[in-house]
Each structure stands twice: as C-alpha cells, then as structure tokens.
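User: I've been trying to design a sequence by hand for this structure and keep getting stuck. Would you show me what you'd pick, starting by listing the structure so we're on the same page?

Assistant: Good idea, let's start from the same input. This is the structure you sent:
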C-alpha cells in the first residue's frame, strides 16, 4: 500500500467540498493506496481557522519527515482556500513529493480574470508546480488550461454517496428541493419570483430550502411579502439521515446557481431519482442532460425555471422518464467508478517513481 496524504476541509464542514472529503473518509476504498487525512480547515471563526491551518501545517511537516508519503492530494478552491493551500504545496515541492491539486471551482472571473498581475503570476506558478490538477468538468479543465499545461489536467467528475435504485420519488408531493448556501451566487434571490410563477399553476407547491447563508432572512421576508409563506420551508443545514429523508420526500431538485463546478447536491438528488431544473453553468450540463433527466435554463431566467418546474411536475409520464434517467446517470457516478478513475490518476503519477 502506498500512502496518500489528503489535505482538505473537515468532513463535518458544510457544503460540497465537505461532502467530497467525507466521501473520501468514509466510502472510498482503494486497492493500492491508503489515505492519511490532515484537516486544514473547519467551519469556525477567523481566529479558529488560522489556528486550524497552523496546526495542520505542523502536522503535515511532521508527517513528511516521519512517514513515507508517496503523494499529496489537496482539496482546494479559490479565494482564501487557494491562499491556505500555498504553504502545503511549497513544502511538498521542497520534499520532492508529487502533488494532486483537486480544484473544486468557484468564480473564475473574480479569482483570475480580475486579479492583479502579481496574483495572476502566483496562480500560474502555483498550478504549474503541481504534478496534476483535477478539474470537475471539461469547462473547468479548459479554464485551468489557460494557466497550466493541459497535459497536467485530469477531469474527474464528482461521485454520489447516495444512491437508491429502489426508491421512487413522489411527484404528487410537489416539494421542490434546494440544498446549498443561501447566497446570491447560488441564485437564491431568484427563488421568490420562481415560486410566485409556479404557485400560479400549482398553489400547493412547497420550496424546501436546506442550507444557511446571508440571504436566509431576506428569502423568508420576500416570500412573506408575496403571500407565499405557506409555500416555503426553511430547514437549515441538513446532513445524514435528515438529508436522506428530505431528499426522499422531495419531488424535484432546483439549482439556480450563477456558477458551479460539479455540484454534489445534484448528484445526490439524481441518485434518488429526482428530476432536476438547473442553470447551464460549470459542469452541470455534463450530469443534467437537457430534456432528458431535467431541464437547463440560463442563470437568472426565472420564467424558464418556473415553466420547467410546472412542466415536469405536471406530467406523470415525463416525470417518470426523467426520474429513471437521473438514476441511470447517477449510477455512472458511483463510488466504485470514481475510485477506479482516481486510482488511475495516482498510478500515472507514481508509476514512474517505483
């Protein structure tokens, strides 16, 4: 067995990266590799985050000196996550250990396009120094290819830890589920208008929001102003059995994001057969095939998203067909499939070092 030092947020962290890391911790079983996990981030205050990062760096440095680490696999994103990754990447480079930088996306226009020349150089140098960059979709691979050689980039779409082929979702409950941060970047500010338009045709529709964020109070206020309070259920952050039961009681999954990588939430919903209405951004079109297992819309097009929800929930035949196709696509993103693809990436990097 060869040792992989896995750097990333706590598996208890909220959000898609936390879900991925939790899957690495609990579900991924590789035949030739063993993970040693180092937590570099937790959902705590700013001082707590600094303390966690320093502690992680010290543990990482000790590991590299006392344990035979064959490869470092770091989960990162943009902004603060990118900056947190730098000391770990630089130390691994000094120790001549291959680095897989697993990039979980973000807003490229803010991260790179609008960055200063010095910041752009730092990004190019950092990504160029990694042995392999993992992109979640072809679109993100193309963006990363503007700052790093394409030969260093591998596409590895996310997996779904939730998959139940026996479950049949309930169309008649008319529960439209959203899971994620309640923030503008996720298109949350479009929900009141979407719900208003759907409720005109389906007065009993309920929008179920699972997550926390800066727009939670605003959402509740906007729904109330429109007389839609009965059509809104805010559950806060859910996980484990509560997440599973919420998914199973839902009819359809909605993700109106402005940008995305490869959303874990969509894959989890598809694993239980939910049709999807989402925006055509990031890696979403690779898992939501338009008019096959869901309907894709332009970001901000509330009329199109509302119309898509009504169309899917209003037709038993269309709903059943999309549900079946969601499960089929989710099966191709199962943990065994993902594990095999990940091992191939490790094999490519470490084969020449044996």
């Amino acid at each position: 067995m060869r040792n992989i030092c896995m750097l990333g947020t706590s598996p208890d962290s909220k959000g898609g990266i936390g879900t991925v890391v939790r899957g690495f911790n609990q579900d991924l079983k590789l035949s030739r590799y063993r993970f040693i996990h180092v937590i570099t981030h937790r959902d705590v205050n700013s001082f707590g985050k600094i303390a966690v990062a320093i502690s992680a760096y010290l543990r990482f440095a000790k590991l590299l000196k006392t344990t035979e680490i064959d490869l470092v696999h770091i989960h990162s994103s943009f902004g603060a996550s990118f900056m947190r990754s730098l000391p770990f990447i630089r130390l691994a480079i000094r120790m001549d250990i291959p680095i897989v930088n697993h990039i979980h996306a973000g807003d490229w226009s803010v991260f790179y396009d609008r960055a200063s020349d010095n910041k752009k150089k730092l990004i190019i140098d950092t990504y160029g120094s990694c042995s392999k960059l993992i992109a979640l979709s072809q679109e993100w691979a193309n963006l990363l290819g503007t700052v790093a050689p394409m030969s260093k980039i591998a596409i590895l779409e996310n997996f779904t830890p939730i998959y139940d082929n026996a479950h049949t979702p309930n169309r008649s409950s008319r529960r439209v589920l959203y899971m994620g941060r309640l923030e503008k970047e996720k298109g949350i500010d479009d929900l009141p208008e979407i719900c208003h338009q759907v409720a005109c045709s389906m007065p009993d529709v309920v929008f179920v929001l699972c997550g926390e964020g800066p727009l939670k109070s605003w959402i509740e206020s906007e729904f109330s102003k429109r007389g839609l309070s009965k059509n809104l259920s805010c559950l806060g952050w859910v996980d484990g059995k509560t997440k599973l039961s919420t998914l199973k009681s839902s009819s359809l999954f909605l993700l109106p994001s402005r940008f995305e990588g490869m959303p874990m939430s969509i894959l989890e919903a598809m694993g239980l057969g939910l049709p999807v209405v989402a925006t055509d951004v990031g890696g979403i079109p690779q898992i939501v095939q338009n008019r096959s297992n869901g309907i894709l819309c332009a970001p901000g097009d509330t009329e199109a998203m509302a119309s898509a929800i009504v169309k899917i929930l209003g037709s038993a035949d269309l709903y059943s067909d999309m549900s079946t196709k969601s499960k089929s696509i989710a099966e191709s993103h199962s943990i065994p499939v993902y594990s095999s693809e990940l091992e191939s990436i490790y094999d490519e990097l470490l084969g020449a070092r044996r």
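That's my pick for every position. To get oriented when you compare it with your attempt: The mean pLDDT is 94. The CA atoms of residues 177 and 208 lie 5 Å apart.
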